[in-house]
Amino acid sequence: MAGPRRVHAGWYAGVAVLVLGLVAAVLYGSGAYDSWRDDRSLDKGCDGTLAQGGLASALGSSDLRAEKGDPGALAGCTVFTSPGSGRAVRITLRWSTDAAPSGSLVWYDSGYSGVRAQAAPLGNGWSGVVRYDGTWQIMVTLHCAKPKGKELVAYGDLYGASGGTAVTGLGRVTTETARKAAGKYGCEAKAGKPLTRVSTARLGKPGTAKPLARAQGSCVALRDISVAGSGTSGIMEYPADPDAPQTNCYLVTGAGKPGYGLYAYYGVAAKDFESTGFGGPDHDSVVATAPCPRAGREAVFAVYRLYDPDTRSEPVAHYSAAFARSALKAFAGHEAEQRGCGDVQIMDLT
Questions:
Q1: What is the pTM of this model?
Q2: What's the CA gap between 250 and 316, in Å, rounded?
Q3: What angle do CA 267, 273, 275 make, to 5 degrees?
């Protein structure tokens, strides 16, 4: 009887293997395996901190997969849609004590180039900004109460997509990933509220300039300065936001061209700006600093006479160093007061 039993056992084993093979083939052929694999890649994305809530909005698809990002970062991942679409979201995490990721410093060494270096406040209580230079980027910083003296920084870059829905999705992914990462890496920090809308409004477009006397946001400190002889008569500004790591204001000519750009940088943004050599020495500019305990390091302020890439010339024909200093003093003094910083000191970069 042992012989037939062995035959039956072998027959059952063979059937089991055949069934398992058929199930695997069905799963693979139906795409269920690919779907499972992609879901697993999202769950593991960015060292398990990737927030998935806004991905479908950012990329216009729920058919997504994640791959590892910058190997030198604290964590990073890139999320792709179907092959050939060109749409992707890249998330990069770093500590403020580490070097900035490749490519991110371009925002700090182009302050002289029209409105290219502009950054809009993210809002909703987040220390963050929205940037655009052909692609959208959202940067968020979380100031750690513990470990003290550190900021957790998250960058979200959007490729192949734009528009309010996509950028809002990017904002949700970036901020919520930062929130999850803070928990994972032990950064005790106060985060903002969940984002429901991210504005895609940008300065420099027709209709974004207004008279200096109507300044009420990031340019409000310049409302009472004398612009006589400066070559400017109006401003372009964003809403004031005491949480944003960068503030900018533009003085514009009578033709509506940005002539001077004023910038304030706090925390890791100040550190990264300084690492570029304060935006580079080969431009008409004035730089100032102020101790800023709340931001964890000194704040940096700068004013540039701007270059217009379209006309390849400076809209303000004659640079006035005296006017630039007075404008920066007013702008930086107001910013420092709003942020609880100390006295502003003009730097000598010569």
A1: 0.87
A2: 12
A3: 105
